[in-house]
Every structure is written in structure tokens, then in C-alpha cells.
Amino acid sequence: MQIVQGIPAAASATTAEALVVASSVPDAPPTTAPTWDNASSIMQLFYPAGSVNPTSDPQGGADFYATPLDLADAQNVSLAYSVFFPSDFDWVLAGKLPGIYGGHKTCSGGDDALSCFSTRLMWREGGAGELYLYAPKDKQTDALCSTSPMSVCDQAYGLSIGRGAFNFTPGAWTHVKQTVTLNTPGEQDGSFVLEVDGRETMRLADVYYRGALMLPYSSFFGGHEEQYATPRDQYTWFKDFAMAINA
């Protein structure tokens, strides 16, 4: 993981498509292709060929916890950021993206989530997006596990909620904003709202969470098995991280 000044122009779908069009037009001037703005500093993540997650060899992506705000008494928190997948990104089977967590750390990797939760996002094949929820599994409603267009409540790992409700766009920035409202103790009335590029794509009102809120930064391929590994070196880029306490 490193901070870089912009990303390669070839990673942009707009630039790549324009270059193809320009090359097909006889005597087209060089200005046919748009320029690529590399003015901003952004976070670059590297996923080497064969990597699955940061605990495996080779190590790929990143996984760490951050507390940019004092969230000990927070009841409603929003987290937003932008992510860029290059135009030729190979999604393989799945990969993790940042979200919010509460309770103890490592609320992932098969944790029973009895005293913690995490709301990371996840990409699936073809760039389909979802909420990848860790929370007390036996306290969730049947409706949560029926969230359209597809949900898979895996008792061994996290809950795949709303798979395909949105898509990450290769070759362009995708801006995501999630808002978590804790449940009343003992009640299934917590909420999760997800906006993608300014449009609400998911609203859940029956989630059972608990704990103090924090930010886990996760981005890697996986799953844990070899079939999730990236077949070649790949990159993603992140920017515009923002967290707010709403209540």
C-alpha cells in the first residue's frame, strides 16, 4: 500500500475506449483522445499474482483497523470513499473492501460475531457488489437473509447481503457511502443504508448489531481458498475517505 500521484491513463475505461476509437479513424489528430487528470494523491493497493489475503503468502492487499474519530458513544455513523478498479480488472470470485466495525477487532475470518459486527463491502464475479455482514447470526431476521436480488447467510463465515444490488464500474471511480445505526439493545431494529454514486441501493431496517463503532480497512481477494487468488499482479486505488458521526 502506498500513496501515489494519480493512476495510469491506461486504467481508465474512458481513455482506453477513446484511444481505440482514435486509432480506427484515419489521420485522426492526437487530441481525439481525452487527457487523464493525475492531479490528486490517492492510495494504491497492490495484489500480487497468487495472493488471496494479507495473512497468506504472497501477501496481497491490506487489512488494518483505524479510529479516526472517537466513536465510543456513537449510535449512527457514516463512512464514505471512492474506489477505482482498472478497466481490465480480473474480479476472479470475490474480494473485500472497507467498512465499519464494532466490538472487538478481527470480526471476520469465521468469527462467531457474538460480541462484534463488521459491515465491509465486497465485490463478486463481474464486479457485483454486496454488503458482507458479520453480526450475531442467530439474531438476524429471515427477511435480512432474503434481501434482493440475492443473499446467502453462511453460518461459517459472513452474511452475503444484497449481492448484485449494485456494481463496481471498471475503469472509473465508484463512490460508496454506508450509514450504520445501532440497534436498540435486544431489538432487531438496527439499520444499514448504502449509497453508490449518490444513489441509494440498499436500505435495511432490521439488523442486530452491538458495540462501539470503528473503521476496518480491508481490501484483498478472498475468500481464503486458492480459487479466489488473483491470477496476475493487479492494483486498485482509493480516495475521498470520510467518516461522520450523525448521532
Automatic annotation (TrEMBL):
Q: Name one Pfam family in it.
A: Polysacc_lyase_14
Record keywords: Lyase
Which species expresses this protein natively? Phlebiopsis gigantea (strain 11061_1 CR5-6) (White-rot fungus)
Q: What is this protein called?
A: Polysaccharide lyase family 14 protein
In the record, which residues are listed under signal peptide? none
Residues in domain Polysaccharide lyase?
A: 38-241
Which GO molecular function terms does the record list? lyase activity
Report the InterPro entries cross-referenced here. Answer: Polysacc_lyase_14
| Membrane spanning stretches | none
